[in-house]
Amino acid sequence: MKRNRTLLGLMALVLVLTMVAGCGSKNNNSNEGAKPTNSANTSETAKPEETAAPEISGEITVITQRTDIVDTVFKEYATEFNKEYPDVKVNFQGLSDYEGQITVRMNSNDYGDVLLIPTSIPLADTAQFFEPLGDLAEMSKQYIGLEERAVDGKAYGLPTAVNFSGILYNKKVFSDAGITTAPRTPDEFLAALKAIKDKGDAIPLYTNYADGWPLTQWEAVLTTAAGSVDYVNIDQVNSDDNFVPGKPHYDLYKIMYDAAKQGLIEPDPTTTNWDASKVDMANGKIGAMVLGSWAIGQVQALAANPDDIAYMPYPTNAKEIIMPLADDYTLGISVHSKNKEAARAWLDWFINKSGYPTEQAGGMSPVVGAELPATLKQFEGTDVKFELQTPAQAGQEGFVDKIDKDAEIGLWQPEFKKRIIEAGIGNLKDSYDDIMKDLNDAWVKSRAKVVK
Amino acid sequence: MVFKNLTYKTQRRIIIVAFSIIPVALLITFAYLPVFNMFKYSFTNWNGYSKTYDHVGLENYKTIFTDSKYFTVFKVALYYFGATFVQMGLALYFATILSFKTRFKNFFKGVLFFPFLMNGVAIGFIFLFFFRADGTLDTVLQFIGLGDFTQGWLLNPKIINISLSGASVWRYMGFNFIIFLGAISSIGKDIYEAADIDGANRWHQFVHIIIPSIQKILQLNLILAISGAISAFDIPYIMTNGSNGSNTFVIQTVTTAFKYNKLGMASAMAVVLLIIVVLVTVLQKALIKEDK
């Protein structure tokens, strides 16, 4: 009996010791342990062939949000890439909730070599996490859209594509209702929606309220509502009157409110479904949706007659019609990367030669002089202009975002758009002007804090 | 051997320490340390990833209690609080019935417990289809001739919280039910027999035998259910994302932390929630003790 107890005690001790020992060596293991997990979803790896050509070598991890194609298209990219750089081994990791997961990982030093710069990282903090890619002035000769991630004259991110924003609509639904030319002003647009409603075959304007994120696409057309490329980053920051009548934000969301109020949106916004909405639009059950250019290809792919799916600028009373160009995610290199040269080689190859910007992201290539995509060619010869927004003035970089976050307005979040729709359909007692006043008050308060 | 020469008392101590060190270490690493950090962050304006942040003292707490935006969401918790009692009542009802002789007893036990085993996300989607216009609920109502009662179940801001707390009752009732069932079945058969001989009917048995015997379990379930009501999250988050007036305090916390990058503020909100739950529990314990 006594011996048993001794044995038991010993075994317990041994157990504890091994556990403690196990904990101690955890640090050493974790680095190695990470590699096998990575290679589970890694791509084809290049056999280090004996080619003398480029000296660049090493292993890099590329993190992407495109979980849909990480195991297919990206693998082909790696194979292509290895023809030029045979000594670089490229691993891929796909994150389904990219923004959420990557910001948590960025608290550590292990967040891959090449990754998309999360939009929630303030401009001022970019240098803490990312490697400068080069001189902004120098690189601007080669690429557009670098300003979005440029600090102190250095560029930190290359856009994976350049998108344009406006309204995706089903031409046939509009023409069946007697609308043959794309409406240009808010009044014309609402009249067109009304005509579609009276015809009764389709939901005129689909908001995708329940999914939430499609509502954030409206913010992207602010430049069109303003009719000026300076508004978003310059005029807005320097004005206390951001949401008052007559200002772009007021006009922009007035269309949303009026459409909701006049019953021109889906009958039950609370139970919408994004994937179903794409099919419905392709089949002519939905007239229009406010979405970025990336959605064109997705809906066209579902349509029996892809030519019915067309794109128009957001209706505006402004003198000039400007369809704003904006960066998709920008691609950057981690400051903690051990193979920065290899990472840079992949980055350049991916933007210039992979075909990703046009084929997969559905936008324009950020490379200067690249060909326009087919969807844009219809606007050649019209008075519709395609322009990038003017970047913020020196010293005011990232101010829009800072004010927005501090005020909890959520320009790029669905919250206040939902409130507008709820008010429009009569679920809230607030009027449109009440909502705009709340937003403007919050804006004024936080602007005073940020712009000193 | 060294161990053998130690006194029994020391041996006992060593073994106790040896066995408890692992769970205690895990508990500290994964429960207390994060909570400690949360308290720390609640006094800062950290945005969640920057390497630097400022200490702002009690600023975050002041904002929570002065800005109506943060505190009015507790109104929604009242719906879930009310639903708690429906949930407990139903669970107790089914547990009692199924503890007596019933046909297909085990089948019904399985059916009632099943929702609790299901993934919360799946349940969210099921109820999204259930409540949508011309969805399952409307179809059933029309089929049985109650078509006039169809509603925009999630559209109408007056009933959205009732719809959502209904889904929540469906999901969590099985858990309360199984605990009640366990407690009730531990009551000896002889007590029922004695009651039968004395001429007690089922209702008398329920009031005078079952309820007193499971009082402790009843309290426990109540505490769990109420703290669950205050921190209601998964069903409304998946189904409506807190829109249309269904925002709860936890959803508000998540929004603050991850949409507006105010992790310091969100930590303060979490601390407030923690304190409220502790207070409710203590209060409940104190009140029930007085009863005895």
Describe the 3D structure:
The complex is a heterodimer of chains A (452) and B (292). Chain A has 452 residues and is of the alpha/beta class. Chain A folds into 2 domains: 37-159 and 329-362, 3-Layer(aba) Sandwich (D-Maltodextrin-Binding Protein, domain 2); 163-327 and 375-450, Periplasmic binding protein-like II (D-Maltodextrin-Binding Protein, domain 2, 3-Layer(aba) Sandwich), CATH 3.40.190.10. Chain A is built from 19 helices and 14 strands. In chain A, the strands form 3 sheets. In chain A, strands 8, 9, 10, 11, 12 and 14 form a 6-stranded mixed beta sheet that branches. In chain A, strands 2-1-3-13-7 form a 5-stranded mixed beta sheet. A 3-stranded antiparallel beta sheet of chain A has the order 4-6-5. In chain A, helix 11 packs across helix 18 and helix 17 (399-407) packs across helix 19 (432-450). The longest helix of chain A has 23 residues, at 2-24. Chain A is globular. The N and C termini of chain A lie far apart (79 Å). With 292 residues, chain B is an all-alpha fold. Chain B folds into 2 domains: 2-60, no CATH class; 74-247, Orthogonal Bundle (MetI-like fold). In chain B, 74% of the residues lie in helices and 0% in strands. Chain B is built from 15 helices and no strands. In chain B, helix 2 crosses helix 15 (263-291), helix 5 packs parallel to helix 9 (160-185) and helix 5 (74-99) packs antiparallel against helix 12. The longest helix of chain B is centred in the first third of the chain and has 34 residues, at 8-41. Chain B is flat. The interface between A and B is large, with 40 and 39 residues.
